[in-house]
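Full entry
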Amino acid sequence: MLSFYNYVKALFYKVFAVFIALLMTLSNGLNNFFNGDIYKYESNSKVVGLETLERAQGVTTDGEYWYFSGKTSLVKIGFDNQTVYAYNYKALTDELVEQYGSKHIGGISYYNGLIYAALEDSKVWAHPVIALYDAETLEFIGEAYEMPNDILTRGIPWVSVDADNGLLYSSYSKTAEVIYCFSLANFEYVGELKLSDPIDAIQGGEVYNGKLYVGSNDMTRAVYSIDVKTGRVEKLFDRIMYKWKWIDNFGGEGEDVTVYPMEDGTVIHALDVGALFIDSNLRHYKWDV
């Protein structure tokens, strides 16, 4: 016979499971009811519950693994979306917190065995930082670069590596009219790329074949491409589109984007967090890049 404690424990887990199922149903129902026309993704690497917190900010890939950032963590996942190869729950080390007041990891980018991570001191906006992590272990390698806060006046929401041109990219966290360019060699500001059209709330991006692909948290959670030579902006597709402004952020948030051709033909992989932050979705899209 079950003890009273075990009975209560089992009952709690059953109630919790039903609660999550109801929330997921509500989330899916809202999507179906309020969505406009959405470009269809081929598949979705979804996680639910606590794993959502680990995959809620940024995503990148080296062609073998997915790398995700949470608010204070980094995780390395196999393409099976299940096998965890490395996990750093305290990616914001004491050193980073003490020196820069870092409280939040944003978008990330992979290059040459390293994860480049955008760090912010939350609403203070005094110390935008790019920190480097070993892609094998996800440990901080001791290199962090404070970026100019007279340019990045509202933090550094994301970073993307353009190895071919020796540059790092980021943008203003609200409406971006330019992409800020920094030297990959020394992290110094080298200029800006004027956009043909402004983009609201860029959350992250990746460079591929001469274009910067970015994910936004605008009204349609759209994904865009930017020609890194001319600044020409092209809207590619909407992810989640709510027709009424009042419900805008109830449906979760559009986050980072990474680009890599997979065996199933998908090439753009866009991260978003679902309603009430119950689930995290890495949606895989076929697209001519």
About this structure: The longest strand covers residues 189-200.
